[in-house]
Amino acid sequence: MENRRYPRTHREESLSLTLLPARSSSVSLEDRLYLTTHDVSLAGISVELPAPIRPDTDVELWVALLEEHGTYHLYGTVAWCAAPDGHLLAGIALDLERADGRLWSAHFDQGGAFCE
């Protein structure tokens, strides 16, 4: 059932998520969602959602890690959207080659576990 490349760490962090348009039209602040993470890993983040998001949707994220770890500008793609246990969640596969992806990676050890 679990098919993950890296271990997940349950963390409730604040983030803003913007759905990126398929074409190069502008994105407004009204397109931004303010969400909470469900868990994080080196290559992905799952978020709690108020409404479904279609898989393969590109997103832009601003994740604020607690404990003075900073705020990270990330890009990714919605990999899945489901409602296990009655809570709507989406899994976002991160593109670690863009924006703060490498800084985000520095918070994980060689095995992919989050370093507190």
From TrEMBL:
InterPro entries in UniProt: PilZ_domain
Species lineage: Bacteria, Pseudomonadati, Pseudomonadota, Gammaproteobacteria, Oceanospirillales
Limits of the PilZ domain: 3-95
GO molecular function: cyclic-di-GMP binding
Species of origin: Alcanivorax nanhaiticus
Name by which UniProt lists this protein: PilZ domain-containing protein
Pfam assignment, any one: PilZ
Domain of life: Bacteria
